[in-house]
Amino acid sequence: MLRDYRGKTVYVVGGSQGIGRACAEAFAERGADVVVFARREGPLRDAVEVIAGRRADAAQGVFGVVLDASDGDKVEPVMAKALTDYGPPDVLLNCAGAASPARFEDIDSDSMLQTLRSNWLSCWYPAKALVPVMKERGGVIVNTSSVAGCIGVFGYTDYSAAKFAVVGFSEALRSELAPHGVAVFVLCPPDTDTPGYAAEEVAKPEETRAVSGGASLLSPAEVASELLRGLSGRGFFIVPGRAARWVVRAQRFAPGLVRWFTDRAVAKAQRSSPR
Which of 48, 59, 75, 246 could form a disulfide with 125 if both were Cys (CB 3.0 to 4.6 A apart)? Predict the structure, then answer.
């Protein structure tokens, strides 16, 4: 649906590192004005400098806005100011989120709620603030889920719940906004070599490691490339990586096979290192 980004404005929520930053760079390379939203001012400032260096021409702009997208009280006024300062977005990419893998009984209520806020509400609140103006002029919304938002994974009971919520939210939003010329996509990356992934590796249960251990890591740039390719089509799910696409299709058409594989990997890990 979108192939030419020259003269377009792209809002990237969660764009200071990882997949969000790589996507912001890719949009800038293709001529878009990019507005990056992130929680921490230091990483945001560094990201804007790097992204600006990838611009297709000197006339376009790259801007940074400090925002915790999971804080509903702050999102609306910040987005209202962004609309005044930078204009409405042609593309809204919601890419904030993080995971802290652990066994279900080791996840307390505060951690669970934080996971829901950072991964699901960080999509809900920006969309809530921007959909009215996007309905007037059309555009594209991309919400970032995960392969773990299509398949429940050991150690990710809270994270999978949040990412499944992103998929359901995006499905319903797509139906509501299609008559207004706003396309909605959901990005479902597999394990990707980001700072967040490195943090996950520290405390990841062995069973979680066993389930995903055979897959190769994608780079954030590879995910960004697949995103832009997906936005040029009419699909809803954008799943980067051939192996990830195979797993998601298998979950849809042969879920028993996927469960057999994951249960086998979990059992093997538990025999090797019983808790």
Answer: 75
In this prediction, residue 42 has a pLDDT band, given cuts at 50, 70 and 90, of: very high
Looking at residue 58, its pLDDT comes to: 61
**Helix, strand, coil percentages, rounded to 5, for the chain:** 55, 15, 30
Instruction: Provide CB contacts within 8 A for 77, sequence distance 6+.
Output: none
Closest CA to 164 of 185, 150, 154: 150
C-alpha pair distances (Å), 92 with each of 134, 224, 229: 9, 14, 16
Helix, coil or strand: residue 194: coil
Q: Is residue 82 a part of any domain in this protein?
A: yes
* Residue spans of beta strands (DSSP E) within the chain: 9-13, 33-38, 62-66, 91-94, 139-144, 182-187, 237-238
Q: Which domain holds residue 102?
A: 9-272
Known catalytic residues are 145, 159, 163
